[in-house]
Amino acid sequence: MSDVDTGSLLSDIRVYVDDLARSWSAPWMDSLVGRLADLAEDADAEAVFRTMSLDRGRSLRLALGRAVERGEIAELPDPQLVSGLLEGPLMHCRIIGRRPPSAGFLDAVASSAYRVIVAPAAAR
Asked: What is the pTM of this model?
């Protein structure tokens, strides 16, 4: 995942979504999805997967921290929630829709998540 500071949270999120889309479009993704159920029975594989997941979300957590420093958002949102807002639609495209997401879809995912993240600050 890219660790790019574009200067704005929305642009940082869009870069992250592009990276997620590339990841979910990789040929090996189907085999990973098929193996996820096996993690419940393999503690070592589960630990490796959790570490990979934390590493994968590092750039998003950094982008959220920069947004707080710039004053775009007042406080850090739950990174698990933000990650789910961004990755969930891409997972759905890959697993259920069996199609790659369009650029317009990726824009909509990024801007929708951005609105959710900044909404608490705007409501104050």
From this structure: 0.81
